[in-house]
Amino acid sequence: MIAEELLLEFGAEIITYTKEEYLFEEGKKAHYYFQVKSGEVKMNNFNAQGKEFIQSIFSCPRSFGEPPLFSDIPYPANAVAVSKAEVFRLKKEVFLDLLLKYPKVHLSVTRGMAKRLYYKAIMASEISSEDPEHRILTLLDYLKKDVHHLNEPFSFKVNITRQQIADLSGLRVETVIRATKSLEKKEELKIKNRKLYR
Amino acid sequence: MIAEELLLEFGAEIITYTKEEYLFEEGKKAHYYFQVKSGEVKMNNFNAQGKEFIQSIFSCPRSFGEPPLFSDIPYPANAVAVSKAEVFRLKKEVFLDLLLKYPKVHLSVTRGMAKRLYYKAIMASEISSEDPEHRILTLLDYLKKDVHHLNEPFSFKVNITRQQIADLSGLRVETVIRATKSLEKKEELKIKNRKLYR
DNA sequence: TAATAATTATGATTTAGGTCATAAATTACA
DNA sequence: TGTAATTTATGACCTAAATCATAATTATTA
């Protein structure tokens, strides 16, 4: 996250995307630094059969899509607005210039990438080795602790749909529905009028 | 990757690990920057049933395990020597100091993390959505192009075992063996006395 | 160089989770 | 406020890959 004033000072634009609109596409080169101002943006992939995999969902003040700004690699996934979203957009060259001028900002960008690498490492291991219930709990615990900074049991009202949980954990929506019901029986989750609590 | 002279100048130690020896463990706090000098190191997880997932395999001059140096997160996986390995080890505080003194080094460390994030994003999507043959080809193509910088067809002699391919792609070794044979029939791979070529 | 371990190989069987179909409940929106 | 779309829900079934068993081949090391 980079302070809004600093972004504007360096000439960042604020762009409004409508729901489902693409910000960039898998395989393309990166030209901008992006940071969410309002709304939500997801990064995703589709396989040949049209199954979606959501890499991550970002809301204010998260940035995303930095890796290809640093290295000569294309975007590994698309970025799509989940809802109407306002996004800061800063030209690549200006962004890199900013990092050199402000080492602390560079460090905070690095810190953000470190956290995402942590999340990816955890989910890769989960998706490859764990059963649906385990995967879902790990995902929800990550969101609860590392994103929403909550600790009390059942204090986290899950704000994503079963379908999104499925797409984030590599499962199918029916499996998520069945697994969450089973987790409710085991008192790992609460379900109050269809909303999950963890 | 940080130049060896610079590492030594900042007081890095060179530590020799024997095959199978642990460098650090999942869940622990990070105190050092690590960089391979010789041999190979892998990062891995084990699930409750003992199934291994390999996050990555690192050889000279790759660094690994930086994310928890930047953010207050534990190691998401173990680091284990695949073979006898010599590793540069630099104290966390000295490492961060070095980055501030040498912005270009900071940028190259960031670049390294960016590449790993790219690999993780690709593999997460593969493991979650693709069939065994697709996963294996994506993994091998990544190793071929992005690690070994090769381009010619079948110029990449795969230097990891079927078991390691399985542990990197979330499959079982029998599945990898069957899938690679099928890929050979489709002329996507060559197999010359048990070695894979891509 | 003999013994042991690791790797590759192959068939038979099992099963978890995907797929398909259908519907109720809730939410969005025109 | 009524209609459409989305989300949650549930049962039946099917299949891809895991599991299990067993062995040949190659590599390691004692």
From TrEMBL, chains A, B:
InterPro entries tied to this protein: cNMP-bd_dom (IPR000595), cNMP-bd_dom_sf (IPR018490), HTH_CRP (IPR012318), RmlC-like_jellyroll (IPR014710), WH_DNA-bd_sf (IPR036390)
Alphabetic keyword roster: DNA-binding, Transcription, Transcription regulation
Residues in HTH crp-type domain copies: 130-198
Domain of life: Bacteria
SUPFAM superfamilies: cAMP-binding domain-like (SSF51206), Winged helix' DNA-binding domain (SSF46785)
Start and end residues of each Cyclic nucleotide-binding domain: 17-116
Record's protein name: Crp/Fnr family transcriptional regulator
Species of origin: Mesonia ostreae
